[in-house]
Design goal:
- There is one protein chain.
- The protein is an alpha+beta fold.
- It has two domains: 139 residues, no CATH class; 186 residues, Rhomboid-like (Rhomboid-like fold, Up-down Bundle), CATH 1.20.1540.10.
- The radius of gyration is 26 Å and the shape is elongated.
- A six-stranded mixed sheet has the order 1-2-3-4-5-6, sandwiched between helices. A two-stranded antiparallel sheet has the order 7-10. It has a two-stranded antiparallel sheet with strand order 8-9.
């Protein structure tokens, strides 16, 4: 049944199910961009008909129940399934009050024509649900990245953190991680040695060298936050491929910027690779249609914008390495993850 297929879609998309007192009414919720989105899936039949008075009463109850939730707005989308869309079109075509904290939107699915009907006074796009609903109704295939969460210990993230820590301790013992000679000795990116000395391996080793304890802590903390989550959705080969690819891109962007500006600097740190993980999570969340262990593409875009803004106003921060790592993470994620054609009702 169409009603069951659409319910399955919302479950697969990891919408939270909210209990209702009717088998023909299902409710789901999700947070997107600081707003709470509620979806009411209502199936009308001979026994369950649209009663405008009851509908308005239910709207008031829903508003009271959810307006206390910590969100900028509450958007209630009613998706009404019926075999006679024309008969309810005018009744549900009530203009949404967009200036209010609670916005009520009504869509109709014509079960006979298998068509999504959006009345002309209604908002015609709600977190891109209309595209997937139309695909379900038309049995179209949608290009997605297929991700399956793997319940395992994030060993690669731990090894990367331990590697950073071990190298930093060795640098401290050798004269201090803020000492220029020690930094160069342990593999920091230094333009003359890379270009004139052809020590291209520094493009990789620089990502494991850190300048001072605070630099090490911030990068390892960020690596833990993002790496432990992303690693659950990739094979170990895919994860390390994205990490190293982003690291090389970040170092490459940094080197190129110094050559272009004719400057010489010592560059070190895993931040380019970490920005690559941010880019990777954005791609995975956007194209899979689900969060990556609670991190959505919207949240990660905010992380990226704030991070770049802080980088621009902070002294001795290599913005180009961050930008390069971000680009590398996106590109290598597309390279290692296989896109497939799936029906929206079978997203994984």
């Amino acid at each position: 049944m169409l009603f069951d297929k659409i319910n399955e879609y919302f479950i697969e998309r990891e919408f939270q199910r909210i209990p209702t007192d009717s088998e023909t009414v299902k409710m789901y919720a999700t947070y997107q961009k600081s707003s709470l989105y509620l979806v009411n899936l209502i199936e009308l039949d001979d026994e369950y008909k649209l009663d405008i008075e009851k509908y308005m009463h239910y709207k008031v109850l829903t508003k009271k129940q959810f307006l206390h939730v910590n969100s900028d707005k509450v958007i209630l989308l009613n998706i009404i399934l019926t075999d006679n869309a024309k008969s309810i079109y005018d009744d549900v075509n009530i203009p949404p009050e967009l200036e209010e904290d609670f916005i009520d939107i009504n869509w109709i699915i014509d079960t006979k024509a298998k068509e999504l009907v959006i009345p002309n006074k209604q908002i015609n796009s709600v977190i891109h649900l209309e595209k997937d609903l139309e695909a379900i109704l038309g049995s179209d295939l949608v290009e997605r990245i297929k991700l399956t969460k793997i319940d395992r210990f994030p060993i690669l993230t731990l090894l990367l953190i331990l590697s950073n820590l071990g190298i930093w301790l060795a640098m401290e013992a050798a004269g201090g991680s803020t000492n220029s000679q020690v930094l160069i000795k342990f593999g920091a990116l230094y333009t003359p040695l890379v270009i004139d000395g052809r020590q291209y391996w520094r493009l990789l080793t620089a990502n494991f060298v850190h300048i001072g304890a605070s630099h090490l802590f911030l990068n390892c903390f960020s690596l833990f936050i993002f790496g432990t989550r992303l690693e659950k959705y990739m094979s170990r080969f895919q994860f390390i491929g994205v990490y190293i690819g982003a690291a090389l891109f970040g170092a490459g962007f940094s080197l190129t910027s110094h050559l272009f500006m004719n400057t010489v600097a010592i560059t070190a740190g895993a931040s380019g690779a970490i920005y690559g993980l941010i880019g990777s999570i954005i791609v995975c969340s956007k194209l899979s249609g689900k969060s990556i262990d609670g991190l959505t593409d919207y949240i990660m875009i905010i992380f990226f914008i704030l991070g770049m803004a802080i980088s621009l106003v902070s002294p001795n921060v290599d913005v180009n390495a961050h930008l390069g790592g971000f680009v590398g993470g996106i590109l290598f994620t597309f390279a290692v993850l296989r896109k497939i054609k799936v029906k929206p009702t079978t997203l994984e």
